[in-house]
Design goal:
By secondary structure, the protein is an alpha/beta fold. The chain is about 40% helix and about 15% strand. Helix 13 packs parallel to helix 15.
């Protein structure tokens, strides 16, 4: 009888994600799924036409490893237009297979076994496995509800001689908070004179509301000089299933990034790159995205005001966090399960974004949905 050899897991603590669990439960119960973060509406037909035209135009073979030149140039133009910093398309922009691959590659190229990586939690779920695969040690700086403010004193105290990198995320998933200019200045002060690197996850860069601006590390020369900036076309153009993103970084960092990238995925599918490059000639879709999502946010928040949820601020992303302590004393995971099964609306417990048990009485909804979807969810939540 044949047996499969056993071997030690590289990720022994990783199991089925909360997103998979809640989405499956939502499907089973016929619940409105406001858990997983993706739109339920179509993208602009023009971008589909642009990709189709690229396919018909013969762009179906391997592209250059760092990405096709027109797309890298379009990315560099956008960053310069919005943030005032020019990245060299040839040596400082790399097209990736989505933001998750970009994050993994940035960490793998820089973190050595035994290096420490500071992570601000609650945190997107790919950061920790990426650090562990690199042999690094995550060091946690914990944010607390309801404001989830950055504790810069604790962030500074977490730095040791072994610290290689800090991972930041603004606008922040899952809390919807954003870093301000004053926050970036504090980070500059903390890293000045060190050899620390920064991975800045900015996939929600175009979803900052109420007239505020996104404070990309690209705006801050001292930070930009040590940073990998990660963004996502999936989030910006409502095409999360295309899995195309990019990394902007100084040439020296990009050279190391590409060493891993070329053996990680090698490159990204060709026609979508040409299609995106063509679509990016019009800046309106990303320049107007904040207004598009602010309408959805405001509609959703107005409906939630008629429930017993306490709304937390939502200055960015397409996620709304709520405090349910006036409704239930269940744990966040138990409340999310009950809400999905009994009320018919799926949410994600914010506790799932911490590395250890951490209860705040807060769950996260995604409002990147059609107004009719949000209206149905609000009608069900009104029962609370």
């Amino acid at each position: 009888m044949s047996t499969t050899p056993a071997f030690p897991s590289r990720l022994p603590t990783v199991g089925t994600t909360i997103f998979t669990v809640m989405s499956a439960l939502a499907a089973e119960k016929g619940a409105v799924n406001l858990g997983q973060g993706f739109p339920d509406f179509d993208c602009d037909p023009k971008i589909v036409d642009a990709v189709a035209a690229a396919m018909r135009g013969g762009h179906n073979q391997y592209p250059p490893m760092p990405g096709v030149a027109p797309l890298r140039e379009a990315i560099a133009d956008k960053i310069e237009r919005v943030y005032g910093r020019r990245y060299d398309p040839a040596t400082e922009i790399t097209v990736t297979a989505g933001a998750t691959q970009a994050l993994l590659t940035a960490i793998l190229c820089a973190v050595h076994p035994g290096d420490e990586v500071i992570v601000v939690e609650p945190t997107y779920d790919s950061y920790l496995p990426s650090i562990e695969l690199a042999g690094g040690k995550p060091v946690f700086v914990t944010l607390e509800a309801p404001d989830f403010a950055i504790p810069f004193d604790r962030l500074a105290a977490a730095i040791t001689p072994k610290t290689r990198m800090i991972v930041i995320n603004t606008p922040h998933n899952p809390t919807g908070t954003v870093w301000l200019d004053t926050d970036m200045r504090k980070l500059e002060d903390i890293v000045r004179g060190t050899n620390l690197l920064i991975v800045s996850d900015e996939v929600y860069e175009h979803m900052v509301y109420d007239g505020a601006r996104h404070e990309s590390v690209a705006r801050y020369p001292e930070l930009a000089a040590r940073s990998f900036i990660v963004s996502s076309f999936g989030k910006t153009y409502h095409v999360t299933g295309w899995k195309v993103g990019y990394v902007a970084a100084p040439a020296a960092l990009t050279a190391e990034f590409r060493k891993v990238h070329q053996f990680n995925v090698f490159t990204v599918n060709t026609p979508m790159q040409f299609g995106l490059a063509d679509y990016m000639r019009d800046p309106a879709p990303y320049l107007t995205l904040a207004g598009f999502y602010q309408e959805k946010r405001d509609f959703f928040r107005a409906g939630l005001e008629r429930t017993r949820f306490k709304l937390l601020p939502c200055p960015g992303t397409y996620f709304q966090c709520v405090d349910y302590s006036a409704i239930s004393d269940l744990s966040e995971a138990e409340f999310s399960t009950w809400l999905t099964a009994e009320i018919g609306v799926a949410a994600i417990p914010v506790s799932a974004f911490y590395h250890a048990p951490h209860e705040s009485g807060v769950v996260r909804f995604c409002f990147a949905k059609q107004e009719s979807t949000l209206a149905t969810a609000l009608e069900r939540l009104a029962k609370l």
